[in-house]
Amino acid sequence: MPEQSENKIEKVVIVGSGPAGWTAAIYAARASLEPLVFAGRPKQVPSLVLPGGQLMMTTEVENYPGFPEGVTGPKMMAKFEQQAVRFGTRIQTDNGQNPDVSDPDDGHSFAYHDCTKVDLSQSPFTVWGENDVCVKAHTVIIATGATANWLGLENEQKLARSGGGVSACAVCDGALPVFRDKELAVVGGGDSAVEEASYLAKFASKVYMIHRRDELRASKIMQQRAMDNPKIEILWNKQVVDVLGDQMISGVRLSDTQSNEESELALGGLFMAIGHTPATAFLDGQLELDEKRYIKLADPYRSTTSVDGVFAAGDCVDSVYRQAITAAGMGCKSALDAEAWLANHGVE
After folding, report:
1. How far is 295 from 291, CA to CA, in rounded Å?
2. Which of 24, 12, 80 is CA-nearest to residue 52?
3. Is 322 left (phi over 0), alpha (psi -120 to 50) or beta?
4. What residue ranges do the domains of the chain occupy?
């Protein structure tokens, strides 16, 4: 496919390639908008944005409709990508706007480009990629997602990548057979940690909440929920200093935050609930964000943002559900909103 000419203005540029980004691309491409996607470039640390989003860290997806036998996260995202490219989506790569599709068993190509910055101060907008790539666009869809916060331990990262029993989403993974009737642990002390522990208690034989303080940060009602659940035990003043196990987690090493005494806890699964970081820093304050740095929608029922012609979808907006299917739905809305914006402004 030929390179974009310097004077061309793209109708739709999509930044991000998780469920929201690829769904937006599918809808935009089927509307003959020829979307251009900045998919991101694989990094070596799970806390950084990956093409394909957080599903690239998920070994088995069982709760997305249409996959009755389950599917791996990378394979699912590759299928999303293939569908988008089938209808004319272009992807910015080292070799230009390359329509090649990654193999569903191998994950995404390392040639894909990150978006490095944007200028949303005037229309048409400007989107920069790697190697000084510069693109003008009538509309921009931000679908960069959010990354789970991790402890940063070497074996934690290894087991999270390999499906070895370390996860950052109990709702995504907790019902998998590998975790059923096992002793599990949740790291964290806020409302999300209690919600994760309560969900896991439906399937686990026991759930430990590992918290580094002597009281939870969760709301009073959520604290009581944890205290009242006979399957949940709170380990106060403890922090995880190592994750044990080779192919599969076998336990964690804990350090007491008051005495520094170390101990080991045998586990069949470990879940992080210490927050998420939305991938919005590259916006450099050009869109209105909420107090947690998520993009604030101008209309909660739409995908519109504080800048006319800029739309947002997925986990960079959603701090509540953070599911593949809700992100995909938001991606659909963003493409439809962008299509309507272009029609209303006479862009053909």
Report:
1. 10
2. 80
3. left
4. 9-147+276-344, 150-272
Whether the pTM exceeds 0.70: the reply is yes
Contact 56, 117 (CB under 8 A): no
Distance CA 279, CA 18 (A): 12
Q: How far apart are CA 296 and CA 318, in angstroms?
A: 9
| DSSP three-state, residue 283 | helix
The residue type found at 122 is Q
**Strands 206-210 and 183-187: what pairing?**
parallel
What is the DSSP code string of 166-219? EES-HHHHTTSGGGTTSEEEEE--SHHHHHHHHHHTTT-SEEEEE-SSSS--S-
Q: Out of 3.20.20.140, 1.20.1250.20, 3.65.10.10, 3.50.50.60, which CATH number does the structure's domain 150-272 have?
A: 3.50.50.60
Q: Which distant-in-sequence residues (6+ apart) come within 8 Å of 315 by Cβ?
A: 18, 20, 53, 54, 145, 146, 276, 278, 322, 327
For 330, the enclosing helix (H) or strand (E) is helix 324-344
| Domain boundaries 9-147+276-344, corresponding CATH code | 3.50.50.60
Which active-site residues does the annotation give? 169, 172-173
- Percent of residues, the chain, with pLDDT higher than 70: 91
Beta partners for 270?
Answer: 166, 185
Let me know if the fold of 9-147+276-344 is the same as that of 150-272. yes
- What pLDDT, in 10s, does the model give residues 193-221? 999 999 999 999 999 999 999 999 999 99
CB 97 within 8 A of CB 3: yes
Estimate to the nearest angstrom the gap between the alpha carbon of 271 and the chain centroid: 16
Is 278 within 8 Å of 316 (Cβ atoms)?
A: yes
